[in-house]
Structure formats: structure tokens, C-alpha cells
Design a protein that fits this description.
The complex is a heterodimer of chains A (about 375) and B (about 600). Chain A is α/β, with parallel strands linked by helices. Chain A has 3 domains: about 20-210, Rossmann fold (3-Layer(aba) Sandwich), CATH 3.40.50.11540; about 225-295, Ubiquitin-like (UB roll) (Roll), CATH 3.10.20.600; about 300-385, Up-down Bundle (de novo design (two linked rop proteins)), CATH 1.20.1440.230. Chain A has helices spanning about 20-25, 30-40, 50-60, 80-105, 120-140, 160-165, 195-205, 210, 245-255, 300-315, 320-340, 345-360, 365-380, 380-385, and strands spanning about 70-75, 110-115, 145-150, 190-195, 225-230, 235-240, 260-265, 270, 290-295. Chain A starts with 17 loop residues before the first helix and ends with a helix. Helices cover about 35% and strands about 15% of the residues of chain B. Chain B has 4 domains: about 1-75, Ubiquitin-like (UB roll) (Roll), CATH 3.10.20.740; about 120-210, Alpha-Beta Plaits (2-Layer Sandwich), CATH 3.30.70; about 210-270 and about 335-405, 3-Layer(aba) Sandwich (Rossmann fold); about 280-330 and about 420-535 and about 540-585, Fe-only Hydrogenase (Larger Subunit), Chain L, domain 3 (3-Layer(aba) Sandwich). With about 600 residues, chain B is of the alpha/beta class. A 5-stranded mixed beta sheet of chain B has the order 2-1-5-3-4, with helices on both faces. Classes of the chains: A alpha/beta (about 375), B alpha/beta (about 600). Chains A and B meet through helix 10, helix 11 and helix 12 of A and helix 2 of B.
Chain lengths: ~375, ~600
């Protein structure tokens, strides 16, 4: 097990000369930019962890003259608030990432899909955007960014539902294939990247992939911004190198009584105390889009689970059967077990259902409900039943 | 071509084929629910999940295109477990009161439940968690959300085939449902009552509003004289609900069955279809004369047909400015109703208040049409009850009639005689063809210049058809039309109707006469026809309609002896005073919610 320990990093919020990086990127060829990103091993920072370089490469390979760069700023995973901070403190780097992606893939148009609840950030974001447009124009590059607002649906953070929403339709995930790199927004090849991914790409171009790969592990290169909340004396945003164990994380952020950490929000995994030492935070262990929620022994894991299931039963788009009905069944099922109206063995049926949801749901939402369900039920079975 | 393996059998199919269709080619059946041959792929019910070796998740066979070297298993343990779960999940949100349900034994979910989930249910009942109420507001159909499995076939039908979108998905998660604008009752939205959603609903969530019991009551009431009329498209589809293959003509057996059910007189809507041609043809020629010769623009061109009540409500909602372009003729059903309680009552010497007028229609919108307040020109409700083809089949089964062994008989004589022109009303292009057969002959004194009277350019399943008929050798009265080219268009399915109506409203096309039918294929694909429906089934019904036409002795409306007689004895002349009173109507501007 490759273990890097806990190291604080300052990349995402580091103050850089954006004009200089942009000039550098515009002097590079498309292939050079993509190669740099591929070499860096960067994986999507929204949570799913698809290799960013590949996504860019596939999109670049499409012959369509019109392509789109979409920035997914619909940060909705419970316990995640890092994109808000990034947009607040480093918006110009987000824009730079999009323009750079545009250069790499041959796109001149970008959209930022901003979570509806972050509307309050818009005035300052527009000021920054105006400056940015002016700057890239001066250095002779044509790229335009527009904002589109979300309206509060969690599902619109799913890439294809996000496209539907931008296009003016109900936010429902599409069938894949075709993938966004072939047919995305307005049925054009589209690269959709998380806010943090785009900023990381800028830093990779600035510092070079060789430098970047010194951070992190083989499977999880670089660093990551974490949103830390729950039973911790120091909640907030922290950028940490990838590759630490949950134990090392808890040593730094716990309150001395941590019994579980929910890594990756409602759609992530619950790590119990007995697994802290041998669980790596990263793609080789438990991946996360940034959400880290600590629970101490005063918390009922039944309540935690109930809360998540309630969330999913509400936020499933309702389109596909396993997710729409499955979420309701899991919620109602644990309630019945808790009340003693269903046998405790019913939990086993529910775990099987969660497994079906994982393989049969249409999109990542339904597929990931089972993560939290299984990990909480298996590790805290007695708390669910009694 | 792409080569893949399904259940270890190799199959070669064209690129772009779905796994579902590739499996079909091998005779491997994969169950589906949200999938429908007339609709775009949804991939949302997940019943069709199959295992692809190497894939992280199962894949939806209906939505997944084949790729080279794919290795698919449709019946692995993983697939069976998931499929059983999915069927169980659907059952848990579905009010499964099957023996009370109108769709009992005709329900696709029930069939799947039979195959995958007999015995104890695994999951908890969710129906009780929702405050469901049945929407009975439409006179044509019921909407029962407690039976809805959210497959969205209805939503896709309404949007994709009909361009109406009276229903759409609203809310999310556990609250997700199929709803109307602001949750208004279906009677208060743009719904045209076409029933295409009813035709495609896999469960009992959308069903026609049935009047079977009321009709039985009327039949058993010795005080009442119950007349029944049958629309042209019923006779080529009824067989499908009684064990025949699509495309079987069962006209004579149907007439016998209706008599055995106890109707006092078995009559034919085709008779008033012929009458419609006389009225509508005359109206068209009058409009042409007024607009083109007398330069009198009080009448509008092009003229749209008005036989299809779904289309009428569509134009009332969506293009109210074009209402003057609609023919003022009532539909054949309503002409029949108005005459049944006037002309027929007089001739048979029956008190019209004792007549119960029933019609058998391929249509759900006809139920709505019969309920329109304008449709009472006889002094009574012109049509008392409208039954769909499906409901008639139910009655025949209820009466224990062995349909196959019935001897065919003929319609009764008063208002029961018809021509092939009346029959073809049931297919898209049929009204146009019937009108041209008559109008051309009125104007030129000669039959239409097509082999066997078959005006093939207006036939077929293309969404929008166009034709130009050159008028030559006119008789004196119609000299002004000499050499003129009559431009006609035909559209079926409201999505195509919308294309034509839009082009007309923008002045982009220059037609004189346009036939519109709300349903795909015309009435033969109507919302009251046997389920299932598909392009192949509709094609077969269409072939049967034209075959019925070819088997008729008379094939031109103006040669129908009963039509000639009714003008002589009762109506005087087409578009005359009495006709206007009984056979014509007006339309209402409606809001577009």
C-alpha cells in the first residue's frame, strides 16, 4: 500500500499570473496540451474520476466543427462545498482552464452550469469573466464563456442531465452511448469537467506534468480540495495531497471520538473506525469528490443512513425503475426494520436490492446509492436494527 | 455489419442495431416495457437489462447499440436477479387490483409479473404512500396514476407522434408522475382525446372511459329502440381482439354479432361518410367558386376536413385563427346521430326520445365529440354512447358469442347502404380519395382519371402526402375550373398535421383542400383500436380497407342510392337549409394549456 501521509498543499488557490499561463497554453499545440494532461494522470475531481486527458483526447478527435466545453459547477453532493470556494477565490483560473480545454479540443464556446444556490456569487463572477474575456482577446484567442443556472435538482450534476437542463428540458440523464465526447451538449462533442479539474489542468500546464506527478500515488495523482464537515473542530476547505489513510485524516481533523467517516458524500462510502488504518483516500481506496463527513459516537448511524436515503428518494429524477422505486424501498425498508415492523433479515433483501440498483440503474445516481447503503448497513447493522 | 454473440450464438447485424433487435433476430426474447416500436428509445424501465461481458453494469438492451465482438448474456443469474427485482419494484408502486382492472389480462406488467414474480412479493407496498385520485374529467378516457409505472410511453406518444404534450413528466424522485399543465384535469388542457396514449399504455393507467354497461342497459330496456352504427375502420381491426391476425375483414360477422347482442337496427357510418362527401365536396366547390371566381373572401381556403375530432380540438387549441378553414361539416358519426333521431325516426315512425343511438368507433375522441354541446341538433343528444372497437370486442365476449362461427350478414337498409368511398374513410387519404371521386365527376361528368378509381398518390403511410389533380373537360356549370390544378395535401398523426397547419398559417404552401386525421394511419390507427399497434399492424389494416373498397359494388359516394334518396325525401340538396341545420357545425377557440 502506497501511503503518502497527510500533506497540505497549495495549488488550487495559489495566486498565479493567469495571463502568462494562457499565453503559454496558446503557444502549445492541441496535442501538447492533451499529452501534458495525460502524463499528469489527472482524474476528474467531481467524484467519478474519469481520466481528464482521455476525455480531452476523445473530444479533440471528433471532426465536428462545433464543440463545447462545459464546466460542471452544479456542486450538489451533500457535504461538498469546495467548488463554491474555488469560484469565489480563483474564478479566473476556472475560466483559464476552460479556454485551455477549448484550445486543446478545438472549441470556442464554454458554458458554466452553476448551482442555483450559488447565484449570489454571480456579480463578482461576471466581473472576473469580463476581465478574462478581455485578456484572452488581447493575447489573440477567441473563446467565450456563458453562465447557465441550475434550479436545485441534484440530478442536474449528472453530465447528460446537465446538458438536458441547459438545452431547456427536464433534467434527466440520457442513455449512453453516445458519450458526451461524441454527442453532448446540443448533440455536439462536449468535454464536461468539474470546476476543480479545470483549475488543476491550469496548474499542470503552469508547472508541468513532471512536477505534478510528484504529488499523490500511482492511482491518485496530485492533490485534492476537501470539504470537511461534521464532528470536527476545524471544518472547512483544505487542499491535501492524495494518498493518505483515513486514520491519518482523522488524526488531523477528528475530535478524538470519530467512529465513522463518510467519504464522497451521500453517494460515497462510509468507513468505520476499524477500517481507518487500512483505507486510502483515493481511487485505490475510497474515492471522493471532496466531501468528508466525520461522525463521532454521539451520532446514530441509522439517522445518517435515513437522511441519505431520504435525500435520494427525493433527488432521484424518477426516470428509471431501480432508482425511483429502489430508493423509496430502501428508505421505507429501514424504517420498518427500525420500528420492528419488518424482520432484521429484511436488511439482507435490501442489500440485494442495493446491488441491483448498482448494476441496473440508468445513471451514476442510482448506481451509487448502494455505496452508502451497503457500507453503513454492513458496518453498523445493530444501529439500524435497534 | 457488426458481429456479436448473444447467449453464445453468433449474429451479424447492421451497425446501429440495438442489442434488443439483434437478439430478436436470433429468436431470443428480451422482455421490455417502456420500449414501443412507434416511439423513440427511452431506456428507463430497465426490464430489458442484459449482461455484457466486461461491462461494469448491466446494459439496457433497447438502448444499447451493438458493437463488434460484444458478448451478451440475456439470462444469466445476474440478469435474472436484476429483472426480478425490477418487476417487483414496478409492482410495488402499482395498484395491482387486477381483477377489478379494465386491462386485466391485457396488461404488459401483469404478463411480466406472471413470468418473473409469482408468489410472495419481496418489497413493501408503496401505493398507500401516495394520495392517488383517478382523473375522470375527460369523457374519452381515465387516467389512474396508481396504475402508472412511469414508462413515459404516453408522454413520448403525446409529444413525438401528436405534437400536443398535454401530458409530461412532473416532479422528481418519489413524487415523479405523469401530469398535465399545472396538474389541471385532462378535460381542461390541450389534450385532444385522441387516445394514442391509451393505445400505448402498458398497464391500466390510461384506459378509455367505458360505456359498455350503459349500452347493455339500453339494449335490455324494451322501451328503447337502440340503433348502432359502425365506423369504417372497425371492421378491419375488430378481429384482432377476437383471435384473428391483423388485416382480417370481419364486416359481415360483426353485423351478425351486433344483431345477436340485441341492437334493434345495425347500421353503417359509411352511409354518412358518403353523405359527408356530398356535403363536404359541395362545400369545397362552393369555396373554390367564391374565392377564385367571385373574389369573395368571406370563405377561407384551403379547406381542412373535419371528420377527425382529435384534429378539431387540436386546431381549436393551437391554430384558432384557422377555424374558418375547417369544413363546417360534422363528422360522419355526428351526421348519423342527427339523422337517426330525425330522418330515421320519421321513416320508422319511432318517437326520437325512445331512440338510443350507439356508435362503434376506432376512436376515443369520438366519445368527446358526442359530448360536445353543439352536437344536439336533433333536439336530443345526437349520439348517446360511443364504444371503441375494443369495447365491442368485450361485449361480444361477454355475450358468449363464438365469433368465428358466425354467418356474415348485411347491414339493415335504412341508413345502412354505403359505397367503397365511405369505407376508405378509415385510412389516411381515404376522405380525400372519396371526395375526389365525387367532386371530379360532378365537375367534369367523368370518373377520376385513375385506374379502377384508385387514386394511388393520396394513399400510403407517408406522414404528409401531396397531389395535384388537373381538371379537364368541365361541364358548363363548372367551366371556371377548366384547366385548373387542384392542389391537395393529406396528413395523419397530429405531428404531421401540425407541420401542414403551420405551413398553411405562414402562407408557405398553396393548397386548396387538406385532409387531416389525428391518428397515425388515419382512423385505422385510432385510439380505440385493438392493442397493440405498430406500423406493420396499421399497414395490414390499411390493405384490408382498400380490399374492402374493391369488393364493393358501388365505389362513389354520389352513387349511393340511399344518399340520393335522403336528399330527395328529406334534405333537399347538399349544403341546403336542412343540411346546415343538421349536418353542419361550428367551432370554438380554445386556450393552449
Amino acid at each position: 500500500m502506497e501511503n503518502k501521509g497527510l500533506t497540505k498543499v497549495d495549488l488550487i488557490f495559489e495566486s498565479i499570473d493567469v495571463r502568462k499561463v494562457m499565453t503559454k497554453a496558446f503557444e502549445m499545440t492541441s496535442d501538447e496540451i492533451i499529452k501534458e494532461i495525460l502524463d499528469s494522470g489527472l482524474k476528474g475531481r467531481g467524484g467519478a474520476g474519469f481520466p481528464t486527458g482521455l476525455k480531452w483526447k476523445y473530444t479533440a478527435a471528433e471532426k465536428e466543427p462545433e464543440k463545447y466545453i462545459v464546466c460542471n459547477a452544479d456542486e450538489g453532493e451533500p457535504g461538498t462545498f469546495k467548488d463554491r470556494e474555488i469560484l469565489d477565490r480563483a474564478a479566473s483560473k476556472v475560466y483559464a482552464g476552460m479556454a485551455m480545454a477549448g484550445k486543446a479540443m478545438g472549441s470556442k464556446k464554454g458554458f458554466i452550469y452553476l448551482r442555483g444556490e450559488y447565484r449570489f456569487l454571480l456579480p463578482q463572477l461576471f466581473v472576473e469573466l469580463h476581465k478574462f474575456h478581455k485578456m484572452i482577446h488581447e493575447i489573440g484567442y477567441d473563446f467565450n464563456i456563458e453562465y447557465r443556472m441550475g434550479s436545485g435538482a441534484y440530478i442536474c450534476g449528472e453530465e447528460s442531465a446537465l446538458f438536458e437542463s441547459i438545452e431547456g428540458f427536464r433534467g434527466e440523464p440520457r442513455n449512453k452511448p453516445p458519450y458526451p465526447t461524441v454527442s453532448g451538449l446540443f448533440s455536439k462533442p462536449t468535454s464536461i469537467n468539474n470546476v476543480e479539474t479545470l483549475v488543476t489542468a491550469v496548474m499542470i500546464i503552469d508547472k508541468g506534468a513532471k512536477e505534478y506527478v510528484k504529488l499523490g500515488t500511482k492511482d491518485s495523482r496530485g492533490s485534492k480540495v476537501f470539504s470537511i464537515s461534521g464532528d470536527t473542530p476545524i471544518p472547512g476547505i483544505f487542499e491535501l495531497e492524495l494518498g493518505m489513510t483515513v486514520q491519518e485524516f482523522v488524526n488531523e481533523f477528528g475530535d478524538g471520538d470519530t467512529k465513522a467517516v463518510q467519504v464522497g458524500g451521500a453517494s460515497g462510502f462510509c468507513v468505520p473506525r476499524k477500517r481507518f488504518a487500512d483505507t486510502i483516500i483515493g481511487f485505490e481506496g475510497v474515492p471522493t469528490g471532496g466531501s468528508m463527513k466525520l461522525f463521532n459516537s454521539s451520532r446514530s448511524m441509522y439517522n445518517v443512513l435515513h437522511n441519505y436515503l431520504d435525500f435520494f428518494a427525493e433527488e432521484s429524477c424518477g426516470q428509471c425503475t431501480p432508482c425511483r422505486v429502489g430508493c423509496q424501498q430502501l428508505l421505507k425498508g429501514v424504517e420498518k426494520v427500525k420500528k420492528g415492523e419488518a424482520k432484521s433479515t429484511y436488511l439482507t433483501e435490501l442489500v440485494k436490492l442495493a446491488d441491483t440498483m448498482k448494476v441496473a440503474s440508468k445513471c451514476g445516481l442510482g448506481q451509487s446509492v448502494g455505496n452508502a447503503f451497503r457500507s453503513i448497513v454492513e458496518n453498523f447493522r445493530e444501529e439500524i436494527i435497534y | 455489419m457488426v458481429t456479436l454473440k448473444i447467449n453464445d450464438q453468433e449474429v451479424k447485424v447492421a451497425a446501429g442495431t440495438t442489442v434488443l433487435d439483434a437478439a430478436k433476430k436470433l429468436g431470443v426474447n428480451i422482455p421490455t416495457l417502456c420500449n414501443h416500436p412507434d416511439l423513440c428509445v427511452a431506456g428507463n424501465c430497465r426490464v430489458c437489462v442484459v449482461e455484457q461481458t466486461g461491462a461494469r453494469t448491466l446494459i439496457a438492451a433497447c438502448a444499447m447499440p451493438v458493437s463488434e465482438g460484444m458478448d451478451i448474456h440475456t439470462n444469466s443469474l445476474k440478469v435474472r436477479n436484476a429483472r426480478k427485482h425490477i418487476v417487483e419494484l414496478l409492482l410495488s408502486e402499482h395498484r395491482a387490483d387486477c381483477t377489478k382492472c379494465y386491462k386485466n389480462q391485457k396488461c404488459e406488467l401483469q404478463t411480466l409479473a406472471n413470468e418473473y414474480s409469482f408468489g410472495e412479493h419481496i418489497f413493501l407496498d408503496l401505493v398507500e404512500d401516495h394520495p392517488y385520485a383517478i382523473d375522470r374529467s375527460s369523457p374519452a378516457f381515465l387516467k389512474d396514476d396508481s396504475k402508472c409505472i412511469r414508462c413515459q410511453r404516453c408522454v413520448r406518444t403525446c409529444a413525438q407522434l401528436q405534437h400536443v404534450s398535454a401530458i409530461a413528466v412532473s416532479h422528481k424522485g418519489s413524487h415523479m408522475k405523469i401530469s398535465s399543465f399545472h396538474d389541471r384535469p385532462m378535460s381542461h388542457v390541450v389534450c385532444t382525446n385522441c387516445g394514442q396514449c391509451v393505445n400505448r399504455c402498458p398497464t391500466g393507467a390510461l384506459t378509455e372511459k367505458t360505456y359498455i354497461d350503459q349500452v347493455w342497459d339500453a339494449i335490455y330496456d324494451t322501451d328503447k329502440h337502440v340503433v348502432v352504427q359502425t365506423a369504417p375502420a372497425v371492421r378491419v381491426a375488430l378481429g384482432e381482439d377476437l383471435g384473428y391476425d391483423p388485416g382480417e375483414r370481419v364486416t359481415g360477422k360483426m353485423v351478425t354479432a351486433l344483431r345477436q347482442l340485441g341492437f334493434d337496427s345495425v347500421l353503417d357510418t359509411d352511409f354518412t361518410a358518403d353523405l359527408t362527401i356530398m356535403e363536404e365536396g359541395t362545400e369545397l366547390l362552393t369555396r373554390l367558386k367564391k374565392v377564385l371566381v367571385e373574389n369573395d373572401h368571406s370563405m377561407a381556403l384551403p379547406m381542412f376536413t373535419s371528420c377527425s375530432p382529435g384534429w378539431i380540438k387540436f386546431i381549436e387549441h393551437k391554430y384558432p385563427k384557422m377555424l374558418p378553414n375547417l369544413s363546417t361539416c360534422k363528422s360522419p358519426q355526428q351526421m348519423f346521430g342527427a339523422l337517426a333521431k330525425t330522418f330515421y325516426a320519421q321513416k320508422r315512425n319511432i318517437d326520437p326520445s325512445k331512440i338510443v343511438s350507439v356508435s362503434i368507433m376506432p376512436c376515443t375522441a369520438k366519445k368527446y365529440e358526442a359530448d360536445r354541446p353543439e352536437m344536439r341538433s336533433s333536439g336530443y343528444k345526437d349520439i348517446d354512447f360511443v364504444l371503441t372497437t375494443r369495447e365491442l370486442a368485450v361485449m361480444i365476449k361477454q355475450a358468449g358469442i363464438d365469433f368465428r362461427t358466425l354467418e356474415p350478414t348485411h347491414y339493415d337498409s335504412l341508413m345502412g347502404t354505403s359505397t367503397g368511398a365511405g369505407v376508405i374513410f378509415g385510412a389516411t387519404g381515404g376522405v380525400m380519395e372519396a371526395a375526389l371521386r365525387t367532386a371530379y365527376e360532378i365537375v367534369t361528368g367523368k370518373p377520376v382519371p385513375f385506374n379502377n378509381l384508385n387514386i394511388t398518390p393520396v394513399r400510403g403511410m407517408d406522414g404528409v402526402k401531396e397531389a395535384t389533380i388537373k381538371i379537364e373537360g368541365t361541364v358548363d356549370e363548372w367551366k371556371f375550373l377548366e384547366g385548373a390544378e387542384l392542389k391537395v395535401a393529406i396528413a395523419h398523426g397530429l405531428v404531421n398535421a401540425n407541420k401542414v397547419a403551420k405551413a398553411v398559417s405562414k402562407g408557405k404552401v398553396n393548397y386548396h383542400f387538406i385532409e387531416i386525421m389525428a391518428c397515425p394511419g388515419g382512423c385505422l390507427g385510432g385510439g380505440g383500436q385493438p392493442i397493440p399497434t405498430s406500423a406493420e399492424i396499421r399497414q395490414k389494416r390499411m390493405e384490408a380497407i382498400y380490399s374492402e373498397d374493391m369488393h364493393m359494388d358501388l365505389r362513389k359516394s354520389h352513387e349511393n342510392p340511399e344518399v340520393l334518396a335522403i336528399y330527395k325525401e328529406f334534405l333537399e340538396k347538399p349544403n341546403g337549409h336542412k343540411s346546415h341545420e343538421l349536418l353542419h357545425t361550428h367551432y370554438i377557440e380554445r386556450e393552449s394549456y
